[in-house]
Design goal:
Radius of gyration: 14 Å
Number of domains: 1
CATH topology: Arc Repressor Mutant, subunit A
Mean pLDDT: 87
CATH architecture: Orthogonal Bundle
Distance between the termini: 24 Å
Structural class: mainly alpha
Length: 86
């Protein structure tokens, strides 16, 4: 991973502005970053690559999403009933 990306992840404090979600309500941003994290993990692990770049998405969704939502989604993934496409 490049030094610039590693430095950005190291200095990460909260989710940066995302032009795809300009409104105050960040629900879709939360859900999209949760999906992106799991899609990234799946894609890179299937290729046998390091999944460290996926940490960015995890940090973003953990700073935006209520933990009760994340716990519910994790349970749904384990049970095979998650509504999103991963």
């Amino acid at each position: 991973m490049s030094d610039v990306i590693e430095e950005k992840i190291k200095n990460y404090r909260t989710a940066p502005f995302d032009a795809r979600f300009p409104n105050t309500n960040q629900t879709r941003n939360c859900f999209q970053n949760y999906l992106d994290f799991h899609r990234c993990n799946k894609a890179l692990s299937d290729k046998g690559q390091d999944v460290a770049p996926c940490d960015w998405y995890q940090r973003v969704y953990k700073s935006i999403c209520p933990m009760s939502w994340v716990a519910k989604w994790d349970d749904q993934i384990e049970a095979g009933g998650f509504p999103g496409k991963i």
